[in-house]
Amino acid sequence: MNRIQSRPTAGLSYNPNEPKYWERDALDKEVERVFDICHGCRLCFNQCPSFPELFGAVDSGGGDVRNLSAARKKRVIDLCYGCKLCEVRCPYTPRDGHEFQLDFPRLMLRARAVESRAHGVAMREKMLGNPDRLGKLGSVVPKLANWACRSPFQRAMMEKMLGISRAKKLPEFAAETFEAWLKRSGLPPAPAAPAARVAIFHTCFVNYYNPAPGRALVSVLARNRCAIAAPAQNCCGMPALDGGDIAFAQKLARANVASMLPLVRRGYRVAAINPTCSLMMRKEYPDLLDNAEARELAAAVADPHELLYALRREGKFDREFRTTPGKVAYHVPCHLKAQSIGLRSRDLIRSIPGAEVVTVDACTAHDGTWAMKREFFELSMKWGEKAFAGMKDAEAQVMATDCPLAAIQIEQAIGVRPLNPVEILARAYEADGFAQPVPPPPSAQE
Fold it and tell me: Does this model's pTM top 0.85?
C-alpha cells in the first residue's frame, strides 16, 4: 500500500466559496492526509478529545488511517469543539507558512458543513446557530424564560426533544438588554479630540444575557476619552458556522460588514467584547465572504483590552484607579490565544495598584454550544477540570475571564462566575468599586 503524502492534495480548501470545498472526495482526501500527519505527530494528544479518539482509532486499525470506518471518522469530527488550541500549537499551519497547510479545526468545520449540505442542518444546530432569535424570544418575558430554563420538567423535555443536556447550566436572560439600556441611557458625548474612535460590537451574549460587560466597556472607553459608536449588529455567525450552516453564517457576516464598514472608513476600530466574535470577524470573515470588504473589516477588529492597552502604550490610558480587586484569578480564553495578541486584559488588571493576577491557562471546554449538548456535557466538564482546579486553587478574591461561556462553565464547576476584565477596570475606577482602596504610591508611604 502506498504511503500517504503529507503535502496538500488537490482537495485542500478552507474557503467555502471554492467549489472543491464542497466535494466529498476532495474532503475525504484531505481528512485522510491530515489524520495521518496528526497520528504521526501526536503533539496535540492532550488538547481536546478529538486527538485521543483519532490516535486510538488509527492504532486499533493497524496504524493506517485508511482503515478507519466512516463512524470512527465522524466521531473524531464531532469531538472537535473548535477551541483552536491545536492550531496554535501545530507547527504545520498556514499561519506558519508551512508547506503542509494543516488547519485541523477548519478542516473539521468543513467536514460538518459538507455533511450538513448533504443531509440538511439538524434542528438543534439551527436553533443553537441563531442566538439572536433565541435572545429575542427570551427577552420578551425574561422571568418566564429563565423559569423554564431552570424547571426540571422543562429541562427534561429540552433534553429529549432538542438534545440539550438537562444538567448544563444555561445563561439567564437579562431583565434589560444591552441595546435597551443604550437606547434609554444614550452614549457619552465624543470628546473634541478623542484618544481613539471605537465601535462596540457588543455581541449577542452581552445583549441578551449579561449586559454588564457592555455597560462597563462604555464607561471605561468614555473615561479614557474615546469616541464611542454602537452600530446595528447581529450574531457574528460563529454558532452557525460551528453547526455547519455556512449559508446562514455568511448571511450574518454580510450584515455585520455592511453595518460596521462605514464606521471603519471613518477611522473607528471595532471592539468585540467576546473573543470568539473577534476571532470570527478577524480570522473567518475573510474566507467566509471572500471579498475586499470583509478583509477591510477584519483588519479593523480588535479585542477591547487590546485597544485600551494601545492607549496605555501611548501614554493616554487613565491610571487614576481608586479601589483594587486584590488577588485576581484570570482565565485565558482559547479564542483569545488564537488571535496572537498577548494577554492584554491581564496586563491591564496588573496596572491597578494592589492587584495581583494569577494566570490560569487551560481550556474550560465549553466552546460555543458544544458543552450544552447532551452527548458532550459530561465530557466537557472532564476536559475543563484543569481550568476549574486552577481557578479554585488560586484562592483569589476576584475571578476573571474574557469569555462569557467559559465564565458559565467555571461557575457550574466551582460556584463562582468570573467577571469580564473590563468590569474589573470599571469598578476599580470607582470609590466603592471594591472594598480595598488602592495603596498609596511608595513615595507617599515614606
Answer: yes
